[in-house]
Amino acid sequence: MYVCLCTGVTDGQIRDAIYEGCCSYKEVRNATGVASQCGKCACLAKEVVRETLGKLQSAQAAIPYPVEFTAA
User: Fold this and answer.
1) CATH of domain 2-61
2) Domain BFD-like [2Fe-2S]-binding: where (predicted)?
3) Planar angle of CA 24, 14, 31, nearest 5 degrees
4) Could you tell me the end-to-end alpha-carbon distance of the chain, in angstroms, rounded to an integer?
């Protein structure tokens, strides 16, 4: 779905930017140009960023780590 009509940014592009390393709304905005024109989409863009980062954090928390960790 289009999040930003001014620059043609979709929710998928926002998620892709996060999967490629963006860790904040500001980084996503710089990478995609979302909300850089009129700004009406900023709330929705921030919601997509929050949701995606939350899912990534949950997924990382579910990764099992060895009980004993030894430094090499």
Assistant:
1) 1.10.10.1100
2) 2-50
3) 65
4) 46
